[in-house]
# Entry
Amino acid sequence: MAVIVEAPAGGVVKERVAAGGSVKRSGTPPARKPDSQDEKGIQVAETEKAQISEAEKPQVVYSTRLGDPFHIAELATKFGLGQKHMTYIVSLSLTLIILIAGILVGLPIRILNSTFWGPPAPADTHRRLLQGIWDFASKDCIGVTASPAFLGIILIAFYFVACTPSIFLDLADLTVTRKFKIQPKAMPTAKDMVKCVALQISNLATTAFPGIVFQLIAQGPWPYGGPAFCLWACTGSELFPEEAPSVAEFLFHNLACVVIFDASYGMWHMLHHKSMLLYRHVHSLHHTYYMPFSFVTQYASLVELAPVSIYTTSIPMAMGAHPLTQWAWCFVNIQLSVEAHTGYDFPWMLGNWLFGGKALLGLGGPKSHDRHHQQPRTNFFPFLSWGDRYFGTTWQPPTKTGN
Ligand SMILES: [Zn+2]
Ligand SMILES: [Zn+2]
# Structure
């Protein structure tokens, strides 16, 4: 039953999940303590055994001793700060550096826009295809969509809507849907769900809600790309373009957002698994559950939610994406992220077919990130498999020998 994991310092962990390892039906998905487990190796296994019996859960033991590649401990001493605060500073600095890199990739696309997506010709049927939707959003619903705060409000609402179906499936636990579970015997309890939602409401109350209130009062800043930048007194009735994006522009910008976001957040994520302090103080909270369910998607530190939000909005802005494109991309981003945490792999899920799915674009699908929660030294990139293939961190099936 035991799982043996051995990895060289800084290397990729080889893990073997015990054959037949299972989790009790109604039990809480075993939560790892999000602190120093990674550097303590076997000691963690002992802690976990105390929480839940060996027969009840698949065992994953980490023996990798993470280092301090960013010299956070040294910097903390030098500047007289606590390690936790210095870790936050380093994490936010990495967020900024990666953001600049993402914007530098997005800006040339903005320049190309005028070449490829010029003013529409009268007989441009592609533009007409989305014009009806855009007219509905920008004219019929202008009373709602014109506000700069609309984007934040609709995305928060969409996140909870996207989480809901799989939560119902978890609670109903139907035989017909259970066979689509990635880890079949793992089911969250209502207590886990409440715990996750409570943290998310707390995070929203301290960041997003004040931001939305500010946007409602100042009517700015304008959260979309396009030719105009507006910091206050912004309204869609003046700033929304008349024309809808062409289908080609819409698809290309969405594809570019998927690729650039995947690379940006994937790098941030991988770096937070390579540093003991970044992992411990920032990212480990998200790894509390190694059998995720949809509310785990945003069960994370504010320092981690910052890059997710910033990259999601700044990348389409940098490339000058149309507001309709930006709405679509944000929905796609949330949907893919939630699917990756539902614990289900239904064939119709967006991650299995968007832009040709795994076959054409190399999308990892819902299983990919679920496996990252099972084996956190693999599958760092959230949507695509390119980055992990490049860095040699793609998840490998457990071997029978396990060594
Ligand atoms: Zn996750
Ligand atoms: Zn991770």
